[in-house]
Amino acid sequence: MSHPRRLLSINTAQAQAMIISDRRIMTAIGKRAVSTLDDARRIEVKPLGLVGDEQSDLTVHGGLSKAVYAYPHEHYAFWQTVRSQAKAQDWGEPLPHGLLGENLTITGLLEAGAYVGDVLQFPDCRLAISEPRRPCYKFEAAMGFKQAVKMMAQSGYCGFYLSVLQPGTLAAGESYELIPGQREVSIAELFKAKMRRD
Fold it and tell me: What is the DSSP track for the chain?
């Protein structure tokens, strides 16, 4: 059963220092919800991303083609399970939106049904799917267990980057329409191909 196409949460972060493998790294992966279903404030979307959000390493995140990162909420149960098992801990609170580094936590669109060039039409903003996210060591550090990158590569639960076709505002709770593009390559197919090359 497919979920309705909806924006559950908008998440942002400022870049801050994190110690990873004894190195001090600047990262903005630690996103926190700034617009939720309980507090649906409007967040401005500009050509290079959300107001209030930073990208620390522009070689892998950010720029016009990777201005916003969306992640399907449907995968959260998977990450809750593997993270609990890897960290040998009881199931705690549900994972907070933004934990995977995403700006938009959405429902109703998975990687196999998301194609490069498809457009997400929100009431006041249009975003185009550009490419899959590639997991890195910062993702592993944020998730708190060693196999996180491998698990994303194997599962294909990568989410996708969006470019901003029409700047405007977004608020949690809004629905979006998926407007198909050329539909030549899906995010799932592209992610598999990129992971094979690495």
Answer: -PPP-EEEEEEE---EEEEETTEEEEE----EEEE-SSS---EEEETTEETT---S-TTTS-SSTTSEEEEEGGGHHHHHHHHHHHTT----SPPPTTTTS-SEEEES--GGG-BTT-EEEETTEEEEEEEE----HHHHHHHTSTTHHHHHHHH----EEEEEEE-EEE-TT-B-EEE-----SBHHHHHHHHHHH-
Residue 173 confidence class, pLDDT cut points 50, 70, 90: very high
Cβ 87 vs Cβ 148: under 8 Å: no
Q: What homologous superfamily does CATH list for 6-192?
A: PK beta-barrel domain-like (2.40.33.20)
Domain residue ranges of the chain, discontinuous segments joined by +: 6-192
Q: Cα–Cα distance between 96 and 101 in angstroms, integer?
A: 11
pLDDT at 1 > cutoff 60: no
Q: What is the pTM of this model?
A: 0.95
Contacts of residue 99, defined as CB under 8 A and 6 or more positions apart, other chains included, come to 31, 79, 142, 143
